[in-house]
Amino acid sequence: MTINETRSGLMLPEFARDEASHPPLDSPAYHSSALRHPKQPLQYLPHYLTEVTGPLLGQDRCGEHDHDLTAQHDDEPLGERIIVSGKVLDSNGKPVPNTLVEVWQANAAGRYLHHGDRHPAPLDPNFSGTGRCMTDAEGNYRFVTIKPGAYPWKNHDNAWRPAHIHFSLFGQSFTQRLITQMYFPGDPLFYQDPIFNSVRDEAARERMICDFDLESTVPEWALSYKWDIVLRGPQATVFEDDEEDDD
């Protein structure tokens, strides 16, 4: 982190991009990145007060069942019920309280409720696949959902995406916003997935995989996974530069 002095004399933080861990803007194995990555040199935009003090996203952004993707319809969705929880941390390992965490995912059959998803798998009328919550005073978040299924996509021959959940976090300002994917341990599709493998550092890839946590399961109701999210610093969770065009 460096400090930038604005014209008004404010001293604001600047964060350099971690080129060693985060995926390159153009990842040739991930074919659609060739159509979306910048073709001209990036232009530096200094951070001003708006970027480092906003957004103001409070608890009123979340409805009663937004954190529970299994309780948003008249009946429960099909699939394996799971709990996903953890902490949101800053670069110093301190909890980030009262920040908005959003998720979106495929259903248990590996299909998104989206007009662009033409995978011939069934839609679930009781599963929309989106949720949100606020972290508590200790930086904790918690979602109840259905374990997503793998799904095919047309990036390469017989290509399948590993099961994953998309996360969006705002941290304490726009400059800390993170969009990433959480994966599940032991997935056999990791080796052939160009999105997962566009993260060049093995340790950084491992930080995208959650941990099964028997202690926090709810007996006879749901298995549980733990996943802490670090917004900046050497232990930062890897972010995406683009969302997938198939999601």
TrEMBL record:
InterPro entries noted in UniProt: Intradiol_dOase_C (IPR000627), Intradiol_dOase_core (IPR015889), Intradiol_RC_Dioxygenase (IPR050770), PCDO_beta_N (IPR024756), Protocat_dOase_b (IPR012785)
Name of this chain's protein: Protocatechuate 3,4-dioxygenase subunit beta
Domain Intradiol ring-cleavage dioxygenases: from-to ranges: 84-112
This protein's UniProt keywords: Dioxygenase, Oxidoreductase
Stretches for region Disordered: 1-33
KW Glycosyltransferase (keyword) present: no
UniProt cross-references to NCBIfam families, sorted A to Z: protocat_beta
Lineage, highest ranks first: Bacteria, Bacillati, Actinomycetota, Actinomycetes, Pseudonocardiales
Residue stretches in coiled coil: none
Family, per entry: Belongs to the intradiol ring-cleavage dioxygenase family.
Family matches, as SUPFAM superfamilies: Aromatic compound dioxygenase (SSF49482)
Gene assigned in the entry: pcaH
The keyword Oxidoreductase is annotated on this UniProt entry: yes
A Pfam family of this chain: Dioxygenase_C
